[in-house]
Amino acid sequence: MTKTFYVTTPIYYVNDVPHIGHSYTTIAADILARFFRARGWDVRFLTGTDEHGIKIVKAAAEKGMTPQELADQVVVHFQSLWKELNITNDDFIRTSQPRHEKRVQEIIRQLVAKDEIYQGSYEGWYDEGQEEFVTESTARENEYKSAINGKPLVRYSEPSYFFRLSKWTPKLIEHIEANADFIQPAARRNEVLSKLAAGVEDLSISRAKEKLGGWGIEMPNDPTHSVYVWIDALSNYYTALGRPAIGDEYDDAGAKYWPATVHLIGKDILWFHAVYWPCMLMALDVPLPRTVFAHGWWTSNGKKMSKSLGNFVSREQIAEICTEYSVDVYRWFLMRAVTFGGDGDFSAQTLRTKYNTELANGVGNLLSRTVNMIGRYFEGTVPPAGEVGPDEQEVIASAQRLVSGAEQAMRNYQFHVLLDDVVSLVDATNRYIDQTAPFKLAKDPSQRSRLATIMATCAQAVCIALAQLEPIMPTTARLGLEQLGVDGPAPTESAAWGERLKGSIVKKGEGLFPRKQ
Ligand code: MSP
Asked: Is 295 helix (H, G, I), strand (E, B) or coil?
């Protein structure tokens, strides 16, 4: 049976244009989607925009626009950036679409029918940036300011509908404890567990509709209330599949992809995904996603990126990097600079150094040396390998480690492990060329078979490295593979060593990664 793989990104707010943080999760999701698609899995990759909520209402008012006008304007920036970055999402959901709004209402209807929602009144501190009420103790700890953006908390009091979150938390704790994969990385899982142990209150899930100027999804049981934006937003992962069924043309279209394989998110929105969302699903009697993976945050030259500091790697800067280097280099660097799950620093200097060391002097140099030598010594045709000996062992072992570990690395969302293995293989092969000195052997006709083995080894090694880089650097890896004469799907498994590219006709091409000063 074909394996399904459903990967999602957060849906992004449309109060602002995209920046590095948005592109990070989206690129990671794209790499996973490409990787598993290439292996024949049935992949579904969803991204989209989160368009309701007070934040959007305010941003639109500041610009003299309606929220819908603002959403329509900003969504284009996300969609065009994803195109530029070669993102292969299968669907793009906008929470203002009727297919989503109607299904959220159906979800609420079902929860009301199950007595999972009740009416109460809420008074408390509200973080307008995060769109969440903050408990008294958290508010006090942070001097009544938002822990995220430092803005003063606002005192809100209003009648509200509540979801029986506290009823489900014991079951959630059990689930988290029994499923080590559910919240990743492990450190984040522990954070969630200790916060849960401190106790959780029921969740206010509606807002007075008039406060939102009518922008939002109406509570089906009370037209004076709108659905709290996080409940609306989280549901997108399910509604995009045409679930629950409501009798329209989207019904169940992607039902086979549920439960999601992984929700990729940033660490700041873990609580919503690891607590509110699974509890809602349990209340609806819907299976839980396999994994919620929270990645870290990018800083800029050691400082937190923030609008007030004006140091966000913006859409314009992303475009500059893509022009100076390439889209693929940007994709690669985001995965290379940081262990996925940890925080990382973005600096132009690090990008340059890493690019020169690992791409220009690494895989790029290896490919051009290989293609040149095969051109010079074997008239451009990859020769069959002669006997493989001790000199080849390190290269072969590195290649096998890369190939056999790739799937495991990607199943564990360890992009860095795969990239480390690529670097090891490339380094081992470049060293191998220096040690075996084919340029000397070429002068001695009695060494012809040895020379053939070395060329076949280099060709196979660089082919494997490029094939594994393909989901990360789709355009460049393809160009490199074409130089090796590979035009079908890149071979990902190793055949008998040195056999894979036998007879392949190499083509000299542009250097993949020109050195940068
Ligand atoms: N709309 C909500 C998500 C709803 S999902 C059901 C939201 N949107 S957002 O536009 O603010 O985008 C959030 C994503 O960008 C989060 O995953 C967040 O972690 C990520 N990032 C924002 N700044 C970031 C960095 N500096 N570094 C990495 N990611 C960061 O939250």
From this structure: strand
Q: What is the 3-state secondary structure (H, E, C) of 453-507?
A: HHHHHHHHHHHHHHHHHCCCCHHHHHHHHHHCCCCCCCCCCCCCCCCCCCCCECC
Using alpha carbons, list the distances in angstroms from residue 337 to 11, 184, 424: 24, 19, 16
Statement: residue 131 has pLDDT above 60: yes
165 Cα–ligand 1 center, Å: 24
Question: In 253-312, which residue ranges form alpha helices assigned H by DSSP?
Answer: 270-271, 277-284
Q: Is 426 helix (H, G, I), strand (E, B) or coil?
A: helix
Q: 129 CA distance to ligand 1 centroid (A)?
A: 12
Band (pLDDT 50/70/90 cuts) for residue 242 is very high
Ligand 1 mean position to 266 CA, how many Å? Answer: 6
Give the residue, out of 8, 50, 94, with the most ligand 1 atoms within 8 A of its beta carbon, to mutate for a pocket test.
50
* Residue among 7, 9, 13, 55 whose CB has most ligand 1 atoms within 8 A, to mutate: 13
The residue whose C-alpha atom lies closest to atom 21 belonging to ligand 1 is: 21
Mean pLDDT of the chain: 94
List ligand 1's pocket residues with C-beta within 6 A: 10-13, 21-22, 24-25, 50, 233-234, 265-266, 268-269, 297-298, 305
Per-residue confidence (pLDDT) for residue 498, from 0 to 100? 77
Q: How far is CA 232 from CA 1, 289, 351, in A?
A: 34, 17, 38
pLDDT digits (tens, 9 = 90+) for 167-214: 999 999 999 999 999 999 999 999 999 999 999 999 999 988 988 889
Runs of H (alpha helix) within 46-118: 54-62, 67-84, 98-113
Instruction: Tell me the sheet residues that pair with 505.
Output: 381
Q: Are 96 and 269 in contact (CB under 8 A)?
A: no
CA–CA gap between residue 355 and residue 332 (Å, rounded): 9
> Which ligand 1 atom sits nearest the alpha carbon of residue 312?
26
Mean pLDDT confidence for 441-460? 97
Q: Taking the complete model, does pTM exceed 0.90, yes or no?
A: yes
pLDDT at position 210: 87
Percent of all residues in the chain with a pLDDT value above 90, rounded to a whole number: 86
Task: Tell me how far apart the alpha carbons of residues 289 and 262 are, in angstroms, rounded to a whole number.
Answer: 7
* Ligand 1 atom 30: residue of nearest CA: 21
Compute the distance from residue 12 Cα to the ligand 1 centre, in Å: 7
* Cβ(27)–Cβ(334) below 8 Å: yes
Q: How confident is the model at residue 489 (pLDDT cuts 50, 70, 90)?
A: low
